[in-house]
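hey so i finally got around to running both of the ones u sent me last week. sorry it took forever, my laptop kept dying halfway thru and i had to restart like 3 times lol. anyway pasting them below in the order u listed, first the sequence line then the structure token line for each. didnt double check formatting much so if smth looks off just lmk and ill redo it

first one:
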Amino acid sequence: MSADAVATNRATQNAHSFSCLTSRPAGPAPSTELADRGPAPTHEVDRRDLCEALCRLLPRTQAAVLRVLFFEQLSPAAAAQTLRLSSSRLFELRRAALAGLRANPRAARMLADAAA
């Protein structure tokens, strides 16, 4: 597997890791006329605001890792270089940040409110 393919695969995994925090539970989508037109124009802004609020619940370094990986969508190698971290440390911080958000009751409330 080429280095580009590995980087693309890791970037996809990173995006999935963060999107699972903000995704809605499985089930039928509400059947309304607006749902057929696609997401509201403010959907992306609202999601970004939610993600930024979640990052504020984390220690500075963990939040920086999530911002670089998910907002700026840098590859893991570029993110590690930008933050002056080793790749293994970058992944440790990402794992700790996601686990911290999953375990934080305040983050759970924010996600529940956003899903409602």
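and the second one:
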Amino acid sequence: QVGIFAAGDAVRWPDPRTGALTGCGHWSLAMRMGEAAARNMLGARAAFTAVPFFWSEHYDQRVNCTGNTEGWDRIEVVSGLPADQWEQRYWREDALVAVATMNRDRANLEAELDFERRLAASLAKPAWGRIAAARGVSQ
């Protein structure tokens, strides 16, 4: 609807990377949504494209998740990490869609940057190219 704007923990929006509705109740992502809603109230008419993420600290352990973990079909557990770290990668149809970590901030930030770069490259294609790619049609 034109003229209706929302932001915050209860909001779900179309994830431009997967096409699925997503949501993430974290205050820092809610702030980004509020900024996007304000820009759109002022006439920007731009989709919210931030990569979903959250982080939390529990007993000096930092837990992060970046991307859309809904609808994954495979999890890859990264091995060979120090005992106080873990990393899981979530895949859907051979595409990395999310990364969850403990005490591996850099890996999570690199995943967020990769998701943003892939989205930017996807949006740089002509509209017919994005539609063809979404339907699995080669160009």
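quick thing i noticed on the 2nd:
The chain has three helices and seven strands.
anyway thats it, ttyl
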